[in-house]
Amino acid sequence: MGILNLVQDNLVPDIVVEEDDVEETGKEPYNDDQPIFFPPELVTQGLQESLTKYYYYLMELKQNFDYEFPVHNIMLLLRSQLEMDEKSVGIELEVDRGTLTVNMEYIGPISLNSDQVNLCRRFQIALFRVRMDRKAENLTEVLCDLTSGNSDIDYLVLPSNYAGQNPAIDWLSVSSVLFSYQKGWNYHKNCNAGMIQTKSGLLCTCMIQTSLVSTPHNGHVYITNGFLNHLNANSLLSLRDGSEMTYKEYYGQRYEDRKIKACFHLSSCLLENRKIAIDNLFRMPESSNAFVELPPELCDVLMSPISISTFYSFTFVPSIMQRIESLLLATSLKKMHLDHAMQNVAIPTMKVLEAITTKKCLESFHLESLETLGNSFLKYTVCQELFKRHQNHHEGLLSIKKDKIISNTNLCTLGCDKKLSGFICDEPFDPKNWMIPGCSGIYTFNEETLCVDFTNILYERQFKVQAEELVNVRYLESLLNHSFQDSSLLVEALTHGSYMLPEIPGCYQRLEFLGDSILDYLITLHFCYKYPGISPGLLNDLRSASVNNNCYALSAVKSKLHKFILHGSQKLYKDIKETVKSFRESLLEYTFGWESEKSFPKVLGDVIESLAGAIFVDLGYNKKVEHYEQRKPAVSLDNGVYSITIEVEANGRVFKHTSTASDEKMAKELASKEVLKSLKEANFSL
User: Fold this and answer.
1) Strand-pair category, 201-204 with 195-198
2) Considering only CA atoms, which of 207, 190, 189 is closest in space to residue 198?
3) What positions does the domain RNase III occupy (predicted)?
């Protein structure tokens, strides 16, 4: 709308400096008796059948960092198909040395028989339990007690390989959970790799090189990475005190009190083993010095064959699944809104997730910037509704009602009533608390209505006047770039309470109440678009520096609106006259209002807000008058001179201008001003 053109000149300049976020203020606690929702797509669909249908997705993992082991792709099998915005979903997770990119793509349906399903469950439970517990002492009992079809969380996460161009389940790795020494001996008795002595007996060397092993003497679990051919039991081991002894002597002395005999074969090589530890995704799992050299005679094989890269890839699964779970909840919440919304709006799922993620989660995104914008939007919508519903209430009563409706206490109660707290992510992800598929004790999502119904009530004018007899309608319409359907709104917006005429029973305060919320929302939205990713603290500072009486008042004086204010106060007349004089003498014309050392009369800022309200009402409460799209600026640099082209499309017409300058920002400002000038000349409202 045209009123924004008057205000926009006084918005804070483009040069911004990031500052620390504002300190969090105390907020009303959530109701303790609130559920924690879990995505229905990941919950059991009933008893397992002889042939179970799954929908499987390929999770392509790409590590954007250097590490000694590559990651492998993973298959996700679900009992119901995901409702996703796109055919594929991209997730980027941060780690110490860079990022891990996960591209998830739907492959198709797959049917597994009951034996295959149980095998897959055994594999993932074994892998995750070892990863979580770092011990193997309870693993056998857990796997023996595994029953089919009774898990609350019902999905499969499996290693993947490629058969030609088609991704497939790596059944060889999945079958590693079935390892036994008897089978290992039978399957490899004719293998030429040779046999080696382990804690529990002889085993083919090809099976222990890539396996999950435990050392019963200390309860540790390791993933093997092959043999160290240059080391054997008689090789020297350097100790921390500078002394040396053979591996055979070291292990024999260390475990003598535990009655462990190191009966090493002198010809055997040592295994290169990596310790198993639970790690948060945001810290690189295991450092390169986490390898230990172990004699095979101390190792008991648990799973084989399984590579260290496969095991390493699965360390990221809890964090990947946590993000997928969050996205699914955000999708459910979005669907709940859209099902009851008056119009369909394309809302990115990541934005919904951002809106339900607090700063405590330590993610790269959180809700505070959206909270700032949402606060402004609620003020805008509530003020609009109150203005329409209570047409005989003055501004004071409307403000009281508004403050009560959008108070934190009221909003908190509303959110709890709608079970919104069940969607909120309010603590950092801890893999130790991740629910391994097969666990229980969760809440399934139960859709509830959550909508806001703003009815379009016709604004009944309190008076009809001949506006042309009181104000210069044509000049003001040209200045505001808006032709009024009801010009009496223009009179109301410019009428001060001291102007007492029987044909004008009201003043501008009701329109000011409405206009204040409109400008607050539009300017906040402007900064969100202009500075994507802006910190909440800086967004608040920019808005406060722009949405204030001095900025608005300066806009009114610059555009000479003060001449058209209808009032009957001698004091107000003197105050405005003094302000205008000060404005001319102190070159305030070239400032932004908030730089002024003195306050302006409140009425000057009020009329800017009341005029915004008048235009909004005259437009039928439609804030979007003209459609325009600013395209990405074209930037080039030649011999130290920047050339920038700014291009805007408005209602099918393209406005563009190219400016050059030695400074990129200056070239952009010059080009932007020319385009804005062209838009104004073409009578377009921004």
Assistant:
1) antiparallel
2) 207
3) 354-415, 473-620
- The amino acid sitting at 513 is F
323 in Cβ contact with 93 (< 8 Å): yes
Q: Which two tokens stand for residue 103?
A: 């591209």
* Most confident of the ranges 140-154, 219-233, 383-397: 383-397
pLDDT digits (tens, 9 = 90+) for 58-89: 999 998 888 878 889 999 999 888 876 665 68
pLDDT, residue 517, reads: 92
Which amino acid is present at 257?
D
> Which has more confidence, 212 or 148?
212
Residue type, 109: P
Backbone conformation region of residue 219, classed left if phi is above 0, alpha if psi is from -120 to 50, else beta: left
Asked if 646 and 673 touch (Cβ cutoff 8 Å), the reply is no
The single-letter DSSP state of residue 109 is E
Which of 309, 305, 284 lies closest to 96, judged by CA?
284
Please list the residues that pair with 303 across neighbouring strands.
212
Q: Of 514, 517, 231, give the one whose Cα is nearest residue 388.
A: 514
- The H or E element spanning position 676 is helix 664-681
Name the pTM for this structure.
0.67
With 90 as the cut, is the pLDDT of residue 623 above it?
A: no
At 229-268, the pLDDT tens digits run 787 778 888 888 888 888 778 777 766 544 445 444 444 5
Q: Per-residue b/e over 540-578, b at no fewer than 16 CB within 10 Å? A: bbbbebbbebbbbbbbbbbbebbebbbbeeeebeebbee
Residues in CB range of 547: below 8 A, 6 or more apart: 519, 520, 523, 524
Query: Which residues are CB-neighbours of 588 under 8 A, at least 6 positions away?
Result: 554, 557, 582, 596
Residues 335, 83: contact at Cβ < 8 Å? yes
Phi, psi dihedral angles at 657 (to 5 degrees): -150, 145
Domain parsing of the chain, residue ranges: 2-10+368-404+461-618, 38-177, 182-314, 628-681
To which residue do tokens 């095991």 refer? 311
- The residue with greater pLDDT, 104 or 435, is 104
Q: Angle, to 10 degrees, between the axis of helix 368-389 and the axis of helix 509-530?
A: 160
Distance CA 370, CA 97 (A): 29
Q: Indicate if the pLDDT at residue 610 is higher than 90.
A: yes
Same fold, 2-10+368-404+461-618 and 182-314: no
- Amino acid type, 621: Y
The dihedrals phi and psi of 375, each to the nearest 5 degrees, come to: -60, -45
- β 51-64/74-78 pair status: antiparallel
User: Which of 230, 226, 229 is CA-nearest to residue 207?
Assistant: 226
Cβ(514)–Cβ(606) below 8 Å: no
Rounded distance between C-alpha atoms, residue 467 and residue 147, angstroms: 82
Tens of pLDDT along 532-559? 778 888 888 888 888 888 888 888 888 8
User: What fold is seen in the domain 2-10+368-404+461-618?
Assistant: Ribonuclease iii, N-terminal Endonuclease Domain; Chain A (1.10.1520)
Q: Top-level CATH class of 182-314?
A: mainly beta
Strand 628-630 versus strand 641-650 pairing type = antiparallel
Q: What whole-number distance in Å separates Cα of residue 316 and Cα of residue 178?
A: 24
pLDDT digits (tens, 9 = 90+) for 320-337: 998 888 888 888 888 776
The residue count of the chain comes to: 686
pLDDT at residue 165 is higher than 50: yes
The answer to whether the peptide bond before residue 39 is cis (omega within 30 degrees of 0) is no
Token reading at 373: 């914008």
3-state secondary structure of 105: strand
Bridge partners of residue 336, in order along the sequence: none
Judge whether 304 and 211 are in contact, CB under 8 Å: yes
Do the Cβ atoms of 208 and 294 come closer than 8 Å?
no
667, 644 contact by CB (below 8 A): yes
